[in-house]
Structures are given as C-alpha cells and as structure tokens.
Amino acid sequence: MSLPITESSRLFFQMFIERSGNRPIDVAIMVTLPWHSVPQGGHVSPSLELLLSQSHRWKSAILHLDPSLVGLLGDLDMPLLESINFKSRYEQWDIDWHPDLCVVTNAPKLKHAIVDDRRSFLFLDIPWNQLLTFTGLPDELEVLRPAGPVLETCVFRGPVGVMHYPEEHPIHFAKLTSLRIANTNYQHTREHGLQFGWEGDTPFRWIIAPVLQNLEIVGHPVIAGASPIINGLLSITLPSHSLLKSLTFHVRGMTEEDFIRLLTVMPNLEYLDLCDTPSSYFASLIATHQSFTDPQQLPLIPRLRTLKILNFSDADMAVLADVHDSRQLLLYRQHEDGKIEFIESPLQPNLFVELTFSSFRACLGGQDRVEGWDKLRNAHATKGSEYTKVLGWARHLASQFLGRRDLSIYGVSPDPSDFLLLTVFYGPVARSSF
Predict the structure, then answer these.
(1) Cα 82 versus chain centre, distance
(2) With contact defined as beta carbons under 8 Å apart, do 26 and 54 qualify?
(3) 3-state class (DSSP) for residue 254
(4) 112, 84 in Cβ contact below 8 A?
(5) Structure-model confidence comparison of residues 71 and 428, the more confident one
C-alpha cells in the first residue's frame, strides 16, 4: 500500500482483506508523499488503520515510512512475522527523536531483517536475538551482539566507515557462515576517510566468525586499503585453519606477503575472486610432483576450482597458466600383473581461470598469448601461409556481414584478435569467447 491512497485502490484493498480471511499476508506500506505532506496530528487513513488491525496476520512486511507515521504505528503485535524490511526517511541528520517515535514489534517468529539506512535504527525495535539473516548498515555494530549466537548470514552495505565499533570486546558470531561487506564510502570526510574505518580500524577487528564459509569484501574502486582488512581477518575474524570455501576480495593494495598470509589460513577454499592482482603472486599455487605424494608439499588452496581476477592489468600470464597446468597431472600405479591403478589426486584438477581486463588493448594482448597469435605474428607471414589465410578469412567474414565498404568505420582490422571479447578464460580446456 502506497500513501496517499485513491478511492479505487481503497476499495480494492478492502476487498482483498475481506477475501483473504485469516490467512497470512505479505504487506508493504510505503510513503510516496512529498516532505511535510504526511497527515499530522494522529490522523490515520481508514485503509491504513484496517491494515494495521491485521498485523497479527503479517508474514512479511516492507515498511518505508515517514517519522510522523512511525509514531502513529507504535506497538505492533505480529505473531506470524518472519521478515521485515524497514526504513524511515528523514529530511536531515538532526532528527527530533524521542522514545515514543519508534515501531516496537512483538514478533516471536522474526528471522530476517533488512534495515538499510543506519539512522532508521532509531525508529525500530525488534528482537535481534532471533535473527538468522541481517542486511543493512547499523549505526553501531554493537546492536548485533544479541544476534551473535544465532545469526547465519550478514550483509553490510553502505558507507561502512561511518559505523561505530564496540569499545571493548569483539562480537562472537557462533553460526555465521556468510558475510558480505560492501563499502560505498566514496566521499572523503574528516571523520571517516574513504576506507572501512578511521585510522585503519575495520569491522573485522570486531567480528569473530569461526565457521565462516563465504566471505565477500568490496572496497573503494581506486584507493588502496587491503592491509588493515587482512590484519583484522587474520587476527580476529578467521581461525588459523578456517572453513572458508568462497572468498571475494575486491580491495586494492594487497601485497604479495598479505596475499600469502591470507590464503595460508584457507585450505578449503574453492572459489577466489580478486581485483587487479599481479600474476606473480600466484607462484605459491603452482603444484610440483612432490605435491601429489607429500601432504607437506601441497601448494596454497589445493581445492581451488575457480579463480577470477577483475581489472587484470598484468602483461604476463605465464604464472597463471603454470598454476592451471600443474594441477592436471594424473597419478597412477602399475601392478605386477600389468594393471594400472589411478591414484586420487590431493589437488582439484579442474581449475577454471577467468581474467577480466580493464583495458581493451591489454585484453587483446592477453588473448593473443592464450591463442598463440603473438608467436605467429612475430614469424614471417609468407603468402599462402596459415596465418595469412586466417587473416583473409576474417576480413572476408567481416565484409559479408557488414557490407562492402570501408571496414574501419566498424572498428574492423585484419587482426583476428580484434574480434575477441574482453574476457580470457583458462579452464579444463583453454578456450576463448567470441
């Protein structure tokens, strides 16, 4: 239900309430009126009053309200409510708040909450100790301490640097398996800078997550800030032998030492997504013959299945190719009777590598190396050679599809690599996308 409500909408809404009987309902109340246009003085429209009287049937609720309307809702009895999406809009930071200006929910079944704007927490009182999932950005991390024993999935999104951290002890999240922190703090301020916190402080210094399996961290797209995050992860958040299976780390400025330190505590990692990481860092992932027979010689993250690098800018991909190829070895044992017994590899052999380039020209150079065009180009291209045949065929196809005209206006050149997309893939079989 959006405010204001037309007469036809009111009649339809009333018919829905009557026909739905006593069944659980999903509701949405969103204010669409301009500022200072919401009715004051305790007035509630008949339709809104009817909907509030049915709060005992609410199964899920989206409440995007005006502060003046929040005060009218007061205490709500919601015995069936399982999820809530709450936001109270405001005109400026200075809010004339008082205890009565708050939605108090009696919701014994509430398990999921979305509270995106940190100032909306002033207007909401929910049983935090019941939550299984939370999405939003609290003004103070401390508000989630009651959820520590039960919370399973947590997403912080917004200007993370403005969040206040606990003054004493970190929060222990005993069942947290999935954590995503996406920092959109792109506007520099004196108090908070551009990072996850002021003076190197980050949420990871205050979050203990011993059973975490999925971790996603997104930082500023340009400014470096990896080291304090990695220090917090290794000192507080993750145990020395973590259960992490998926890591997305899009924060610039990671050193090779930090890279190795971080991956050393992730022996179960299967998915790794990084941002602009030099290929030389991955030398520690290359397997040797000893890696297949001696557990002490295993490379880092032996169970890795997928490696993605966003904004890849390295000119040399040889190390990444070696990582991929080194994990393809097959071990076998031949018995006296001639039978061959294959030995199970301690490494995941089907490694998929995806590189997304920030530069089209860099992508073409990388694609050339994958396909072997660089070697052919350096060789003498004699008339009638396979190289010149492919060049001629590519130009012929372009002319047939684009017409007999100056192909340069379409950006077509006689180099076949110009027809390749911006992503280079390594997989069980090296391939390219057209």
Answers:
(1) 24
(2) no
(3) coil
(4) yes
(5) 71
| 223 has pLDDT over 70 | yes
Paired strand residues for 426: 353
Cα diameter, the chain: 94
Q: Which residues contact 174 (CB under 8 A, 6 or more apart)?
A: 148, 149, 150, 210, 211
Which band of pLDDT confidence, cut at 50, 70 and 90, is reported for residue 347?
A: confident
**Among 31-35, 303-307, 369-373, the least confident range:** 369-373
Give the phi and the psi of residue 171 in degrees, each rounded to 5: -95, 130
Q: Which two tokens stand for residue 306?
A: 């997928």
114 phi, psi to nearest 5 deg:
-125, 120
Euclidean distance between CA atoms 153 and 58, whole angstroms: 23
SS3 356: strand
Q: Which two tokens stand for residue 8?
A: 């036809």
Question: Are residues 280 and 318 in contact, defined by beta-carbon separation less than 8 angstroms?
Answer: no
Question: 282: closest CA among 307, 305, 303?
Answer: 307
Tokens of 282: 């991955």
Please name every residue paired with 420 in a beta bridge, in sequence order, or none if there are none: none
Lowest mean pLDDT among 157-161, 166-170, 325-329, 340-344: 340-344
E runs forming strands in 205-270: 207-208, 214-218, 246-250
Q: Which residues pair with 176 in a beta bridge?
A: none
Residue 372 Ramachandran class (φ > 0 left, ψ -120 to 50 alpha, else beta): left
Mean pLDDT for all residues in the chain: 78
Instruction: List 431's β-bridge partners, or say none.
Output: 425
Torsion angle of the four alpha carbons 262, 266, 270, 273, in this order, in degrees rounded to the nearest 10: -20
Let me know: does 156 contact 176? Beta carbons within 8 Å: no
Phi-psi region of 192 (alpha: psi -120 to 50; beta: other; left: phi over 0): alpha
CB 296 within 8 A of CB 342: no
3-state secondary structure of 161: helix
DSSP 109-138: T--EEEE-SGGGGGGEE--GGG-SEEEE--
